[in-house]
Amino acid sequence: MKRNPNKIKLSKEELIYQAVISLFLILFLIICIVPFLYVLGMSFTSEGEMIQRNYFVIIPREPILAAYKYVLNKKFFLSMGVTVARTLLGVVAALALAVPAGYILAKQDLPYRSACMIFFIITMILNGGLIPNYMLMTRLKLLDSFWVYIAPAFANTYGILVVKLFVEGIPSDVTDSAELDGASELQKLVYIAIPLLKPTLCALGLFAAVTHWNAWFDALVYIRNEALYPIQLVIRNLLIASSSGDMMSNVNTYAKMTSESIKMASVVIAVLPILCIYPFLQKYFVHGMYTGAVKG
């Protein structure tokens, strides 16, 4: 077998360094995967096997689906539809104003540009708190409405600043040549800035999607109609009810199912959609973190 002449021979110190790094990454991977496998395994485990194995099961001997049958009811699918609609519209809302506002703030000749920047940064750092926000939603007549999830998403100050930093990095020769060809600011935004912003927009969209998917506190505060509950709030209420024993009478109607398996099944259902989407958007996530951290 011929040796590859282009292969770099590593020194002993470099080999030790790579071995240590590889060991650290393997341990970190185990730390991340084992808890999820534990939750997944417990969601398929019957009461008898949990007791027999001291409530620590990763691979159940006799998997059951009773917990998932209990969780996946009509209320679950209704709340899932609310969450999906909220996530999609929330992503659109998060980008709708962030892109044009960030593009405008990137203009060096913008009047009162520094004052606008200070205003946006102050609103990002300081928050009025729960009571002022509740009063604002009341004045806007958004209480107990689906749009109470979407309206605050337009105030995406972080997205505005990230877009601004990226637009400032576009070579001036590109925009100057477009201006010489008679392109307006809107045309430069649509045909130059947005195509170059695609990775950044995907990263910001992913941030917004994860935020809306995991949100439940705003629904707890602003919503009274259970038909508008997002999936995370439904799962939260389910976990509280299973912990307090309020549903034990219902649990007994399903053979071998326990409140512990219901909790685990709820967690798996809540996490699974994001786990399926994230690998396809990981490169954009990394790019967005790089853009926000380095260009500033």
From TrEMBL:
It is found in: Cell membrane. Keywords: Cell membrane, Membrane, Transmembrane, Transmembrane helix, Transport. One of its GO terms (biological process) is transmembrane transport. Residues 80-275 form the ABC transmembrane type-1 domain. It comes from the Bacteria. The chain crosses the membrane at residues 20-41, 84-106, 112-134, 146-167, 189-215, 264-281. InterPro entries: MetI-like, MetI-like_sf. One of its GO terms (cellular component) is plasma membrane. Gene3D superfamilies: MetI-like (1.10.3720.10). Belongs to the binding-protein-dependent transport system permease family. This is L-arabinose transport system permease protein AraQ.
